[in-house]
Design a protein that fits this description.
Radius of gyration: 19 Å
Number of domains: 2
CATH architecture of the largest domain: 3-Layer(aba) Sandwich
Order of helices and strands: EEHHEHEHEHEHEHEEHEHEHHHEE
Strand order of the largest sheet: 1-7-6-4-5
Helix content: 25-40%
Largest sheet: 5 strands, mixed
Number of helices: 12
Bound molecules: oxa(dethia)-CoA
Shape: globular
Length: 337
């Protein structure tokens, strides 16, 4: 980066998370489905996932994560200009989950909208926040990934329901000046889409194509359908290519990268990306064993945990990457402030 001290940058200044208390283990899934704990852990790396209680929703989880992120960033809700909630499981089709958050947080001057880019949603939302800040349209933005996946997975489909979990992660993104080494920066972002593969990972029912009827319910069209091996291959290729391009745009050699926090979908996907990028184990973070795939929430939850565990520290340069339905894909290089 050739940024000087007066260059306006967008930096993450606080993170928050919310995870439901209820854990669903692989052993419990064994009792519910024709599966084995051993198969799940060997093929995915996931040991357990969190499941929202009846009163927990995408909005309530996002609210808790947002409050924590604002506290950590030492920012009052009244100073937030924009709220972007990345989710494929919004509170309602409309109004947006972001508008409910705006009111509940007391973010009196904030605009807000939901952003749907499936499991890559947090990276997409971060790219919007960065663009708003660099263009001078906003100073303080709340970016959230929140998902209640347990309400859209087909609990009769063993190839998908074992993968997903519920949770929320939030990041405060602020306009900062001065050296990136001190204040941090989202240095580069890369986004991509391949709509030709839309049917490989989809909830077919409930939209304008197949509005809810008794027939769509009978056909279980309101649940996730996935071609696992097609998604797997595209996720490996997509996230590694996006990381390479994001590093190039940030003028960063991969050998200088300190940490990679990829979407937590499957340990074998992350390991394959790691091999393609030639990264040693200690530069790759995984927490999917605890939470499974929380879709748009997975990257901010993983960033939070990595920071709590001392794996993500001030001054480090971290690559984040996401991949999901669409196929949507994204990566960013962040200098941690
Ligand atoms: O966030 C982005 C969204 N999703 C992903 O990134 C997920 C991407 N895909 C994957 O993670 C993997 O493809 C899966 C974990 C879903 C599946 O792993 P796989 O190694 O690709 O297995 P497979 O789909 O090739 O299936 C292998 C076998 C099949 O049996 P047959 O046809 O070989 O007899 C499946 O029926 O494993 C069977 N199988 C299971 N067996 C026990 C599928 N699910 C299960 C299960 N328990 N839960």
């Amino acid at each position: 980066m050739n940024a000087n001290n007066s260059t306006l940058r967008a930096a993450i200044t606080g993170l928050g998370v919310y995870l439901p208390e209820k854990r669903l283990t692989n052993q419990e899934l064994e009792q519910m489905l024709d599966t084995s704990a051993e198969w799940i852990v060997q093929r995915t790396g996931i040991c357990e996932r969190r499941i929202a209680a009846p009163k927990e929703t995408t909005f309530t989880m996002a609210l808790e994560a947002s409050r924590q992120a604002l506290t950590v960033a030492n920012l009052s809700a009244a100073k937030v200009d924009l709220i972007i909630c990345a989710t494929l499981t919004p509170e309602h089709p409309f109004p947006s989950t972001a508008s409910l958050l705006q009111h509940a947080l007391g973010a009196t001057r904030a605009a807000g909208f939901d952003l749907e880019a499936a499991c890559a949603g947090f990276i997409y939302a971060l790219s919007v926040a960065r663009a708003y800040i660099i263009s001078g349209m906003a100073e303080n933005i709340l970016v959230i990934g929140s998902e209640t996946m347990s309400r859209v997975v087909d609990w009769e489909d063993r190839s998908t329901c074992i993968l997903f979990g519920d949770g929320a992660g939030a990041a405060v993104v602020r306009a900062v000046r001065g050296p990136a080494e001190v204040g941090g920066a989202i240095e580069s972002v890369v986004l991509a889409n391949d709509g030709s593969k839309a049917s490989a990972l989809i909830i077919p029912g409930g939209g304008s194509h197949s509005p809810t009827t008794e027939e769509t319910v009978r056909q279980r069209l309101h649940f996730i359908q996935m071609n696992g091996s097609e998604v797997f291959k595209a996720a490996v290729r997509g996230m590694s290519d996006a990381c390479l391009l994001a590093a190039e745009r940030a003028d960063l050699k991969l050998s200088e990268l300190d940490l990679m926090v990829a979407h937590q979908a499957n340990a074998r996907i992350i390991e394959a990306v790691q091999r393609r990028l030639g990264l040693p184990d200690y530069k790759v973070y995984q927490n999917l064993q605890r939470y499974g795939n929380t879709s748009a929430a997975s990257v901010p939850i993983a960033l939070y945990d990595a920071q709590q565990e001392g794996r993500l520290r001030s001054g480090m340069r971290v690559a984040i990457a996401g991949f999901g339905g669409g196929f949507s894909c994204g990566a960013a290089i962040i200098r941690w402030g």
